[in-house]
Amino acid sequence: MAPRTEPDGRSSVVTEEDPHGTLYCLNVYVSDLAQRSWVPPGTVKRLRVLEGIPQKAGETGPLIPRRILGEIPVEEDGSFSIDVPANTPVELQILDADGMALRSCGWIWARNHEPRGCIGCHEDGELAPENRFAQAMNRPSIPLTLPPRRRRTVDFRRDVVPIIARQCAPCHDEDGAPPRLDGGLRACQRLLAADAPAAGGGSRRRFVHPGQARTSPFVWHLFGRNTSRPWDETAGIRLKEGPTPCEARRLSDDDKRTFVEWVDLGALWDTAAAQGE
Asked: What's the average model confidence in pLDDT over 133-160?
């Protein structure tokens, strides 16, 4: 080995001075689903972009909690283009009309000044994109680059408990409909309880599936229907009862959206504690 002169630059678009990168998608409707008809054009209404935050110092595991970098509408042709903080793990979730995540990607990131793109949502990487000009490429990328202190989180303690105390707990008490939703942390633990044996064999699903609101029976109850999609194992399960008159009358769309976001973002009790704050 011998010393050499430092190169003048690099054969790359990366520019360390730019704190942002760009993520773009040509068409969210191009996917590896068994049937393309499962997500017909117009199904995807918005894109939610989440930031992954490392756990407390000394802990290992998945990047939780998640903070919302922002939501944007998806173009009519299924394309989008966004600017995000560089070197930051992000998760993309395409949303339906109820704000539920239809599909979520794994953790990805963009380097400083780098444009990084994909054909569609979980598409076959060997496929060549259609030869067309995506609508999102016809305008500047949408910036989702809020400073960390302004990036929103959703947790049970701060956001969900007030709704439950105001609207749900009076009916879901010791003598009311299951699950009991009194007690703050205990209510969260009951919603996240593991599967339990059911009469006649098999198992009874828990109320909440962290990270996947659309398959959570708790969410089905709020919306009065099974919100699973054809590719979910829970798609064929019938919901025996819709929401009670109490829920149907009192829960606003904003309340339901808070529940959905809480589940889709990982169903955490306290995001501040998870971040070590």
From this structure: 94
pLDDT of residue 11: 66
Q: What is the pLDDT of residue 1?
A: 83
- The DSSP string of 63-78 is --SEEEEEEEEPPTTS
Facing residues of 204 across strands? 196
Q: Which helix (H) or strand (E) holds 255?
A: helix 253-264
| DSSP category for residue 141 | P
Q: Name the burial class of residue 196, with classes exposed (0-12), middle (13-18) and buried (19+) by CB atoms within 10 angstroms of its CB.
A: exposed
Distance (Å, rounded) from C-alpha 188 to C-alpha 62?
20
Is omega for the bond preceding 179 within 30 degrees of 0, making it cis?
yes
Query: Strand 90-95's sheet: what is its strand order?
Result: 66-73, 46-52, 90-95, 101-104
Q: For residue range 224-256, what is the model confidence (pLDDT) as tens digits?
A: 889 999 999 999 887 766 555 555 557 889 999
Percentage of the chain surpassing pLDDT 70?
83
- The 3-class secondary structure across 34-55, one letter per residue, is CCHHHCCCCCCCEEEEEEECCC
Q: How many CB atoms lie within 10 A of CB 155?
A: 21
Query: Which of 86, 53, 49 has the alpha carbon at shortest distance from 71?
Result: 49
Cross-strand bridge partners of residue 94:
47, 103
d(CA 258, CA 213): 11
Q: What is the C-alpha radius of gyration for the chain, rounded to an integer number of angstroms? A: 21
Closest CA to 97 of 44, 29, 38: 44
CA distance 214 to 227: 5
